[in-house]
Write a structure and sequence with these properties.
With 271 residues, this protein is α+β, with helices and mostly antiparallel strands. The protein has five helices and twelve strands. Helix 1 packs across helix 5. The protein binds zinc ion.
C-alpha cells in the first residue's frame, strides 16, 4: 500500500491511498467515526443556575463542546482498573464553570471553563455556552470521560471522514466542437476548453458525477471519465480534539485489534 499526503494541517488530512480496496477504506472510515475515543463532558452537577435555560440544555451544550484529548493519559471508563461508576483520576477529568453577569447581559464562552488538567480544555475559547442577563448566575462542576462516537455524537473525533475513488479522465485526443458545455456544467471546474481542445485543469477535484459526459452534444462522448479501482482519496477533518493523523492511526490500531479478537473467537470455536 502506498500513501501520499496531499494536505495536512491541525484539523485536516487529505491523502491518496493506493493498492487498497473498498472494504478496508470503509472499515477505516467507520472506525474513525464511531470507535476512535475522545473526551467529552458526560456528567454535570449544577450548583447554581438562575439563567433562563434548563439544566439539561446547558449540560447538553457542554457535552457537545469539543475537548482536547490526551489518549495516552486516560483510560476508557469500561477499561479502567477502578471499575467505579463515579470514575477515578485515570478515567475522569473535572471541569468547573463559575459565571455571573454583574454589569449587564453577557455571553458565557467555553474559554471560561476551568479544567483540573490544562491538557484537557475546550478546543476553542469561543463556543457560546449561555447568555446571562444582569444578576443571573451559573455555577457548575462537570466530569469529562473518554467515549466512542457509536454511543453519542459528542464522542466523535471527526466532523467529516470520507473517501472517493481516484479519478481518471481521458480528454478527447482530437479537437472537438469546442462548445465547452462539459467545462461549463462541471461544479468543481475540473475541465477547461482551449482552442477547441478539452484539457484537465484539476483532476483531484473530480467527484465522478458524469455531468460533463451527459452535457456533451456528441453521443457517445469522446470524453472518458473513469476511476482507478484500487486508489482512493481519503479526507479526515478533525473537530480539533485529536490531530487527524492520530485519528487515522488509532483507527488502524482498532482494526488490527478487532481482527485479532475475531481470530481468537474462530480458534475458540474450532477447539
Ligand atoms: Zn478509573
Amino acid at each position: 500500500m502506498k500513501i501520499e499526503i496531499l494536505e495536512k494541517n491541525d484539523t485536516n488530512l487529505r491523502i491518496i491511498v493506493r493498492d487498497a480496496d473498498v472494504p478496508l477504506m470503509n472499515a477505516l472510515r467507520r472506525l474513525a467515526l464511531a470507535e476512535v475515543p475522545c473526551m467529552a463532558i458526560e456528567e454535570v452537577v449544577m450548583i447554581e443556575n438562575s439563567s433562563i435555560l434548563q439544566d439539561e440544555i446547558i449540560a447538553h451544550r457542554l457535552g457537545l463542546t469539543p475537548l482536547k484529548t490526551d489518549l495516552d493519559a486516560y483510560n476508557l471508563p469500561e477499561e479502567c482498573e477502578c471499575q467505579s461508576e463515579f470514575g477515578c483520576p485515570q478515567c475522569r477529568v473535572t471541569l468547573t464553570l463559575d459565571a455571573e453577569a454583574k454589569e449587564g447581559t453577557r455571553t458565557v464562552y467555553s474559554g471560561e471553563i476551568i479544567s483540573e488538567n490544562p491538557e484537557i480544555v475546550p478546543v476553542s475559547d469561543k463556543v457560546p455556552i449561555i447568555k446571562l442577563a444582569k444578576n443571573q448566575k451559573l455555577k457548575l462542576e462537570a466530569y469529562a470521560r473518554l467515549g466512542r462516537g457509536k454511543n453519542h455524537a459528542k464522542w466523535q473525533p471527526v466532523s467529516m471522514c470520507a473517501y472517493k475513488y481516484y479519478p481518471k479522465i481521458t480528454p478527447p485526443a482530437e479537437k472537438c466542437e469546442g462548445c465547452s458545455k462539459c467545462a461549463d456544467i462541471c461544479p468543481k471546474k475540473v475541465l477547461t476548453v482551449k482552442d477547441d481542445k478539452v484539457d484537465v485543469r484539476d483532476l483531484l477535484a473530480c467527484n465522478l458525477c458524469m455531468d460533463c459526459v451527459e452535457a456533451c452534444p456528441q453521443k457517445p462522448s469522446p470524453l472518458k471519465i473513469e476511476w482507478e479501482k484500487n486508489a482512493f482519496i481519503l479526507n479526515i477533518e478533525s473537530t480539533g480534539v485529536l490531530p487527524p493523523e492520530r485519528v487515522l492511526k488509532e483507527a488502524t490500531k482498532l482494526l488490527g485489534k478487532q481482527l485479532n479478537e475475531f481470530e481468537e473467537q474462530i480458534k475458540a470455536e474450532q477447539s
